[in-house]
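This section describes the prediction task in plain terms. A model, or a person checking by hand, is given the sequence of a single protein chain and must write out its three-dimensional structure as a string of tokens. No templates, partner chains or ligands are provided. The sample shown here is typical of the held-out split.
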Amino acid sequence: MKFPIYDIRVTVTAIEGRSVCGMEVGDYFELTESSRLRIPEGKYFCIFALNSILPLLIAKQRELSAGDWLERDSLVVCPDPDERLIMRMERTQKRIMNSDELT
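The expected answer:
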């Protein structure tokens, strides 16, 4: 069965406190082809920031109804209160995938 799914880029858009993990505004990762996490060579992404956004990515990959809050909202904050690292989820590409080829 074929279904549409979006690739997503998550970018650090602001750090309102001190950068405890060493990340900087502009750092990003991409989620492509349903489950492939891509981080630019030589870069990293904080596991705690990643953990705070992972549950939302699966929903953001899907087509949502216009009234769904996640269709309108795209900002997520890392749970570290001293850092206040803000990330933006953006859909970058729509793909048609075949569920028979996935697990």
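For orientation: The CA atoms of residues 59 and 68 lie 10 Å apart.
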